[in-house]
Each structure stands twice: as structure tokens, then as C-alpha cells.
Amino acid sequence: METKEKGKSTKGFKLSAGLVVVCCFIIAGLVFYFVFGNPSNFLGNDVNNHPENLLGTIYKGGPIVVVLQALFLSVLVLSVERFFAIKKANGKGSLVKFVQSIKTTLQSGDIEEAKEACLKQKGSVGNVVTSALVKYEQMQEDTELSKEQKLVTIQKEVEEATALEMPSLEENLNFIATMTTLGTLLGLLGTVIGMIRSFAALANAGAPDSIALATGISEALINTAFGIATGATAVIAYSYFTSRIDKITYCIDEVGFTIVQSYSATHKK
After folding, report:
1. Distance in angstroms (rounded) separating the CA atoms of residues 118 and 103
2. Burial of 55 (0-12, 13-18, 19+ CB in 10 A)
């Protein structure tokens, strides 16, 4: 029970991806129709005319721009959420120094000092190490299990404590990973639709419809830009956060191995 309660401390910044997407869709829709679609952004204050500025050009990108805007905002919001969540899971101090301090205290046999270091560090690594140290002390007092069974028990405690912490670290990363391809594909869809409209304008009998041609080209380019921006942002965010999580996982594995080896070296049974 103690391990589970401590594991909850790293989930303070959790946000639901579904709720974030819905809110971002609402915001994107309002911005699209009331900011980009403001008549002052077009010739003669008429949204059916050529745009006078970039805002009007974005509006000419069509309804898919709303979807791409919403996804782009969602990636940004969830990236900020993951940044703070992983920062909290990382703990208060340097993980490298923390791992080294745990190794040093275990070599000297001072379990209480190691537990104090965990309380100061906090975060996911601190939670896992605290659970392992508690089990370490329990195994010292156990007279029924063999040494091999005790080592397995300590290792199992490390694995279970890690399993409790990992979901809070990986929350919403699947959504960000999906956006790496979905954003680009939706941008491509908007580009294809815009080009279809452009060629349809050129295929009209008589003089080409310049407004329809410009609208189609705008839709193609704007959707391409938003799609690339969404995909690129998602790729950068996903790579950054997975590397941070890998570092935390590596530190947990290193400390867990150290605890097991320490018990093996200092106890005959």
C-alpha cells in the first residue's frame, strides 16, 4: 500500500487527451471563423473575395484547417503537460548523483541514509528505490526464505514498483506518437483537395475562375503548412519525452541491480 500511495505523487499533471482534443477543437473553430474569417481580412470586407493578409489566406484553407489547428494545439498542450509530469517524476535533484549516492550508502550498509536520500529525491526513481529498500529490510529479518528466494523477492519488488510508475510517465505519449503521421496525412489530404479545386477552376469553360483558382491553391498550401507543423512538432516532442523516460528507466534498473547485488554480497543467507 505504501508503494502505491507514493506512486501517485507523480500523476499530478495528468490530463485526458480526449478532453484536450475537444477543447482544442472548440478553440480552433472559434479562431478560424471569428479571427481568420473576419471580413476585414478580405477585399471589400467580403469573405468570398481575395484575402488581404495572412489571416485571410489561412481562412481560405478550408474546414480541414480547423482540424489541423486543433491537432496542433493538442500536441502543444499535451507536450507541456508531459514536460511537467516527467520533470516531477524525475525528482528534485540530479538522477546521476542520486544513483551514485544510493550506491555509496548501500556499500556502507546504511539503509536508513539511503531511505532519507529517497525522501529528498522523490519522483519515480525515489519511489521505486524506497519500495526496494523496505523489502530489503524485510528480507534481512526473514528467517524462512533462502538467499536465492530473497534476491528474487527484492528483484520482484523493484519490477512491481516500476510497473506502478511507468503508466504515469507514458500517459498521452501514444496520442503524440499518432500525431507524427496523422497530422502530416491530414495536411496531405487538404493539399489534394485544394489542388483538385485549382484544376477544376482551370478546367472551366471560357476564362478560368481566378478566385476559385486562388482559393484552391491557398487551401493546398495552408493545409500543407499546418500538417507539416503538426507532424514535426509531434516527432520532436515524442523523441524528447521517450529519451527522458528511457533515462529514468535506466536509473531504476541500475539502482535495482545495485540493491540486489548489495544484498547478495553482504548476506550469507
Report:
1. 12
2. middle
Beta bridge partners of 42: 51
Q: How far apart are CA 185 and CA 231, in angstroms?
A: 9
CB–CB of 138/259 below 8 Å? no
Of the candidates 261, 254, 262, 258, the residue with the CA atom closest to the CA atom of residue 96: 254
pTM higher than the cut 0.70: yes
Please report, for residues 33, 50, 105, 162, 217, the alpha-carbon distance to residue 213 in angstroms, rounded to integers and kept in the order given: 22, 11, 73, 58, 6
Cell numbers found for residue 14: 495528468
| Cβ count within 10 A of residue 21 | 17
Give, as one character, the DSSP assignment of residue 32: I
Match 496520442 to its residue by C-alpha cell. Answer: 175
pLDDT in tens, the chain (269 residues): 344 444 444 444 467 888 999 999 999 999 999 999 999 988 888 888 878 888 888 888 888 899 999 999 999 999 999 999 898 888 888 888 888 888 888 888 888 888 898 988 888 889 999 999 999 888 888 888 888 899 999 999 999 999 988 888 888 899 999 999 999 999 888 888 878 877 776 776 555 566 666 666 777 788 889 999 999 999 999 999 999 999 999 988 888 888 888 888 887 77
